[in-house]
Specification:
With 540 residues, the protein is an alpha/beta fold.
Amino acid sequence: MSESATQAEHRTVLLRGGEVHSPADPFATAMVVERGHVAWVGSEGAADAFASGVDEVVDLEGALVTPAFVDAHVHTTATGLALTGLDLSAAASLAEAAELIRAYAGARPADRVLIGHGWDASRWPERRPLGREELDRLTGGRPLYLTRIDVHSALVTTAMLDLVPAVRGMTGFRDGEPLTGAAHHAVRSAAYASVSPGQRADAQRAALRHAASLGIGTVHECGGPDISSEDDFTGLLKAAADGPGPRVVGYWADTDVERARALGAAGAAGDLFADGSLGSHTACLHEPYADAPHAGVAHLDAADVAAHVTACTEAGLQAGFHAIGDHAISNVVSGLEAAAKALGLARIRAARHRVEHAEMLTPETVAAFAEFGLTASVQPAFDAAWGGDTGMYAQRLGIERARTLNPYAALLRAGVPLAFGSDSPVTPVDPWGTVRAAAFHRTPEHRISVRAAFTAHTRGGWRAVGRDDGGALVPGAPADYAVWRTGGLVVQAPDDRVARWSTDPRSGTPGLPDLTPGNPLPECLRTVVLGQTVYVRPGE
């Protein structure tokens, strides 16, 4: 393919000789891009009429063209630091984690604070995290901040605690246990304060390059005062606006609505914590955990939610909440009910507020999501990583409660819009893997078709920011697309009768790659955002 990697928005390009995934023409093999937007999609024969009037003709050589993916929940700087730094997500035991920490500390003698991510003791034979004295020995007594895979708790060395002397009196500090709550937030702030502006910018660039290499055209950054910093947030938005790469839509998790607006956020939303996580025993439940004598912690009650939704709606901004446990989700729903009574249901629905994660849903809360027009911004990779009858969810909740988690089919049946994301670095940026995880959910009744999952990871992400013009390759849409090397295209759905009908030409259903577990995932050859190439696979 000869398309220039520095293609300007005003150039007119004809792509032909491949497969173009478009609802405008299920059998399209060609597409014209003009002024950063899709101008036409159609058949190979009709493409001849455009060939002489374009600036460039791209021979797809049989490749598949799809809308670029949208990752609807990312922590960009943390993702970049995990990509370039200490990543324990692949450690299969306490001993492996210890050796990775020792090697990393030895290789970074100049770092004032060591930062790492990804430990998950629930996967280790020892079933325990590293203790503080062990970490002190592994690091030679240096400050270390090491987040659990869900980023809702952290291990630290004694030297790290000494950088925040007041932490020992904060909520979430229990000597000898991972930090949670306020104690965790305070130590996280101190750790990230040690990252220089240059290191932060490098991490952000690394994360966005990585996303582009996987066919992602847009990421939703979830920042906030307890998560990152204002400089981190505004720096990322500026960097994304100034250079070619995936576009970044920023959410700032703060009840100060005007501050969120001043920072350039699309909403005072994202990880505005109604609760914590299941892995760290901090998600707020109606009934206690199966493996702990408590039910987690609520950070927002219904009155808090109502006040925030009302303020955001009146300000013309999206509200949104991180809510995982069933009690936390009930608090969000009750707050929405109160806000709807005060402002009217139509205004609430029109605002397209969001809930992140939304794992422990019930039929009643699913119906409420539909009533209030809430977008469920969810992460199917969570189920792939922790679902099933022997996974972390079952350890925390017991098998029966675990089987109710992440009910994507029920959400779609109720008419709740889905937007898929990774929550990276909690789970990796992996869009086709995410689609596969939803289509092959560990609980069969929660599975959805590959087409529905793909839509949630493309068009769903655009809709989640209040835009209905993107995420599908149709005339007039932004030219955000990815080119893929893949095998034959099929239609996959949980109900075989649906799949058989969808392959009939009369259905007009365009095919997608076969994502059956074990099959190789598509390989990204090129990613284009608003007509500008932001990634080209080496050698293409």
